[in-house]
């Protein structure tokens, strides 16, 4: 039986471009693969026919010969290099053809980039984390601080190359600089990371004595960082390129500074708001008056206590809280009164308080209301 025209086999017109040929073959390879056509006994022959057509048309010289002479170009002595389906050369050509499609379909997934590449880029350095604790005052005003970060830095003697004297690495002889090696297994070509160079595509014949060929050494590095005003616990600062140095000249990682604001003995923070609990004497709460309270900027503010103030009463100082991290004003400060009961009374003080208690029957409205409700509750329970 005469052979079908190779262009007809792939569903193409004569003069199709290499991209059109490859695209058509991909479609036919998927459509006719024997594993997907177990109910079609002709699929294997059709699959081989498509591979034979692609093997010829993908090659510029073979395609030119076929366009001029047709199938006769590969008969007798003229076709020895092209191979025939079923022969040893044909099987090798089929593996080569399918390898092209395998590269195109799975190259990105496997980390390669087709026949033209596959070598891994120099390994990027790891990102580093540094925990920094600041006071509430520092979080309020911001600060410039120098920190010491233990990290890997580029080796000075070899300039990060890993080779003695900074010499350039040489191409790996196992993978010829590709970073990957291939093995043909039947119809498939399997690609693996080169075991000699670990995918880098390069080897170092004479490793640097200072870093052992790694291109980096351990060292404490001093960094000056700017902590902006308004930071709070959990704020993260990123310093690009200040992380661990890359392997053999690879790009460095980043440094992430995680901030923690320490608790304060006077103020409690809630977002932009500050709370300050201020104790006042029983007499001051009853009579009213003025008190001075501290502010986070180190200053003082005078607050008027209304007469008859109870514990828990709050007063607001506008704009005396924490600043917003990226501008936009500041929060407020809340003063919470804590009426303090006197202790360690003298005999005279006790007598005065007993006298005061006897005269203050109508001065405790909350107590009067509460105990009136208690009395009603007990009476209802008896009923």
Could you characterize the architecture of this molecule?
Keywords: Chaperone, Cytoplasm, DNA replication, Metal-binding, Repeat, Stress response, Zinc, Zinc-finger. A zinc finger (CR-type) spans 142-220. The chain is of the alpha+beta class. It folds into five domains: 6-110, DnaJ domain (Helix Hairpins, Orthogonal Bundle), CATH 1.10.287; 118-164 and 213-263, Urease metallochaperone UreE, N-terminal domain (HSP40/DNAj peptide-binding domain, Sandwich); 170-203, no CATH class; 267-340, Sandwich (HSP40/DNAj peptide-binding domain), CATH 2.60.260.20; 347-382, no CATH class. Helices cover 29% and strands 25% of the residues. It has nine helices and 15 strands. The strands form six sheets. It has a four-stranded mixed beta sheet with strand order 10-11-15-14. Strands 1-9-8 form a three-stranded mixed beta sheet. α2 (18-32) packs antiparallel against α3 (43-57) and α3 (43-57) packs across α5 (88-110). The termini are far apart.
Spell out the key features of this protein.
single chain; Helix Hairpins; 383 residues; HSP40/DNAj peptide-binding domain; alpha+beta; 5 domains; four-stranded mixed beta sheet; 9 helices
């Amino acid at each position: 039986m005469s052979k079908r025209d190779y262009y007809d086999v792939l569903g193409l017109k004569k003069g199709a471009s290499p991209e059109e040929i490859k695209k058509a073959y991909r479609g036919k390879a998927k459509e006719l693969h024997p594993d997907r056509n177990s109910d079609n006994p002709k699929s294997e022959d059709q699959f081989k026919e498509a591979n034979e057509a692609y093997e010829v048309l993908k090659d510029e010289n073979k395609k030119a010969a076929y366009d001029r002479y047709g199938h006769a170009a590969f008969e007798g002595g003229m076709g020895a290099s092209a191979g025939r389906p079923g022969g040893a050369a044909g099987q090798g050509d089929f593996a080569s053809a399918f390898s092209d499609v395998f590269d195109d379909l799975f190259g990105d997934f496997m980390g390669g980039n087709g026949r033209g590449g596959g070598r891994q880029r120099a390994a990027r350095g790891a990102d580093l984390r540094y925990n920094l604790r600041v006071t509430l005052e520092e979080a309020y005003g911001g600060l410039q601080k120098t920190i010491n970060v233990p990290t890997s830095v580029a080796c000075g003697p070899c300039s990060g190359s890993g080779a003695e004297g900074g010499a350039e690495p040489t191409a790996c002889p196992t993978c010829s600089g590709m970073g990957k090696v291939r093995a043909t297994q039947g119809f498939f070509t399997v690609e693996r990371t080169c075991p000699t160079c670990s995918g880098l595509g390069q080897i170092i014949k004479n490793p640097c004595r200072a870093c052992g060929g790694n291109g980096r050494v351990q060292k404490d590095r001093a960094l000056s960082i700017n902590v902006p005003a308004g930071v709070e616990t959990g704020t993260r600062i990123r310093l690009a390129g200040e992380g661990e140095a890359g392997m053999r000249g690879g790009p460095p990682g980043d440094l992430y500074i995680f901030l923690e604001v320490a608790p304060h003995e006077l103020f409690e923070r809630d977002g932009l708001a500050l709370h300050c609990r201020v104790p006042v004497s029983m007499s001051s709460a009853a009579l009213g008056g003025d008190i001075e309270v501290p502010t986070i900027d180190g200053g003082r503010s005078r607050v008027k206590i209304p007469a008859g103030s109870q514990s828990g009463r709050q007063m607001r100082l506008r704009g005396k809280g924490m600043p917003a991290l990226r501008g936009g004003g500041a929060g407020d400060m809340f003063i919470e009164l804590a009426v303090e009961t006197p202790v360690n009374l003298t005999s005279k003080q006790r007598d005065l308080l007993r006298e005061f208690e006897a005269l203050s029957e109508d001065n405790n409205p909350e107590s009067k209301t509460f105990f009136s409700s208690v009395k009603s509750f007990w009476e209802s329970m008896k009923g």
